[in-house]
Each structure stands twice: as structure tokens, then as C-alpha cells.
Amino acid sequence: MSLIGTYSVPGSSQSTISRYYSTLDELLLGVPDNTNNQIQAINIRDAVYTLYEFIQGISASASMTASVLYDRNIPSTYLSNVGGVNSGSTFSGPIQDTLDRIFYPYNSPQASMSSLGTREFGGPLSVTINWSAVKTNNLIATIVVDGSPQVPTGNSQTGTKISLGTHSVSPTLSQTNTFSMTVGDGTTTVSASTNLVWMNNIFWGSINLSSIGNPNLTLNPGSASLVSTLCTDPVIRNLTGASVTPGYQLTTSKNRTYTNIDGSGDYLVFAWPSGVSGSLSPIFTVNGLQNTAFTRVRTNSPFNNQYNFSGTRYEVWISNTPQNSPLNIIIS
């Protein structure tokens, strides 16, 4: 017999015991045609109580279906304003699981590394890499920075890594060191990289040639050899810009605009690597007009920079006469 439960009216002075059955057969067998007065009151109560419970169950189910609540206070992770489910997807399961697929799709972790900028050839080789790993959906499982595994916390984290750069002893105009990292969450592995770029400086400023009588190189071009003895490496390295600070720049080109460069009675001097484009045939435009009153006093010349690196040769150019007022000079 599939008896589910019983019920009696609390406080009743008469018996109201009623039984709740799970099948129709038990109810009908309790209420036959009654030709022999076989029906008892409890049989009627059983049918009424069972019917009541069934109606209650149907009503509760309908109420739950009509009042489905999707309550999620976590910010959605889809990267646009529409659902994240691909066209053609199928759905099966609880409504929350379906909606989570739309509003909380999987996103891969993120990785980033700080910029390392540029350095002059011969400079320090050690670099400090600042890195970041960002957790999205899954816990972060692996972090490798410049070949060295880091200890993941599972969540977003940052750190630093000391690495070494390198460059040739006779480099081209620039060389690049690339440092990489990977971040994995068990589903996806992403990567990031950063570059350290090695370059040479170009230099500009003014030089006093009164010790050799301030020669006019237009009228006496042979004085260039004498001038070159004063345009030494330390003098070039310590040029301060002649009012166009700082007097040096890491670059792969000689081309530059000098606004209001002022010799203040001294000669203007410019120096750049011999390997830059047009190093032997620069065009000087002074106050809007092309000017040829500049002389090369050192060419393909060994040069020691501030780090005593001598792998790059230089060209040194100087104005043919002292300059007494600000000029706008474009070198191309």
C-alpha cells in the first residue's frame, strides 16, 4: 500500500484521521458501489485529503515556475553589451547555468610587463622588469617571467624580475632585447613582452675656439685639422645644447630641428654616428635658408661614450664661424 501520510484536525472531539495515498487504486477500492454498506467515513476522508494534497502540490509547482528569480551580484564578465554565447549553441540545465553562460563567459587571464625604454650602448646591462598577472575566471596556475617560474597565488598579482640585456661590441644603429612572460590558468596560456632598445647619442652645443684664434673655416678650410684636435671625445660628451637642452639624444637619425640654438659667440658643433643616413652629406637649413657654412672636422672617428664604449664611429661638424645670436637650424 502506498500510504504517504496522515492528517487529523487539531482539537477535534471526533475522529478526523485521514490518509494520503499515492495511487488512484487505493482510493477507489475504498469507495465501492456500497451495495453491502461497505463504505466507511474514513474512506471518503482519505479521498478528500489525497485530492487536497495533490492540488496543493500542483499549485506550488505553478507558483515556482511563474516566479523564477535570477539574482547575481557579481559584475558580469562579458566584454561587450550582448550575451557571450556563440550562435548555434544549445542549452540544457538550470536557468542560472544558462544565464551564467551569457553574462559570465570565460575570459583568458591577462599578462603585462613594464616598458624598459632605451639605453646608450655600453650602459648597464641589468634591467628590472615589473610584471603583472591578472586573474579573470579561473585561478592562475602558472607564471613564467623571462624563463623563470614565479610562485602563483591563484589570484591577480604583480612582481619584479632582474634580468640582463646585451648588445654587440660593434653594433648597428640600434639593437633590441626582448623579454617575455607567460600566464596560464589551466585553460589558456597568454603571453606578454617588453623591449630594451640600445642606441647611440647624437650631440650638439657650442665650443670655444679662441685658443686657436677663432679660425674662419670658409676662408681657411685647412684649419679644420687644428679644430679637430679641440673637438675631443670629452668635449663632445659634455656639450650642453647651446640653449637647446640637454645637448644629446638617443636616436638612430641625425635629423633634428634646433629652435633658437645660440652659440653666444662660440662655434656651433654637432656630432652623430657615422652609420646614420646622410651622415657625410647633411643639409643645414638656417632660418629657412639652406646653408653650407659648416665643416666636417672628424669623420669615421673612433669615439668613447660616457660608458667608455667605443664600438661606434662618429662624424663631427662645426659652424665655419662663431655664432653670436639665436638661430633656427634644421639638419636633414
Textual characterization of the structure:
The chain is of the alpha+beta class and 332 residues long. The protein folds into four domains: 64 residues; 25 residues, no CATH class; 89 residues, Sandwich (Immunoglobulin-like), CATH 2.60.40; 132 residues, no CATH class. It is 15% helix and 34% strand. The protein has five helices and 18 strands. The strands form four sheets. Strands 4, 6, 7, 9, 10, 11, 13, 16 and 17 form a nine-stranded mixed beta sheet that branches. Strands 12-18-14-15 form a four-stranded antiparallel beta sheet, with no helix packed on it. Strands 3-5-8 form a three-stranded antiparallel beta sheet, with no helix packed on it. The chain is rod-shaped, with a radius of gyration of 44 Å. The model has no long low-confidence stretch (mean pLDDT 90).
Q: What's the average pLDDT?
A: 90
Q: Nearest-angstrom radius of gyration?
A: 44 Å
Strands, count: 18
Biggest pleated sheet: 9 strands, mixed
> Which structural class should the secondary elements be placed in?
alpha+beta
The share of residues in extended strands comes to: 25-35%
Total individual domains? 4
Anisotropy-based shape: rod-shaped
Order of helices and strands: EEHHHEEEEEEEEHHEEEEEEEE
Query: Ends: how far apart?
Result: 105 Å
The number of distinct helices, counting runs of at least 4 residues, comes to 5
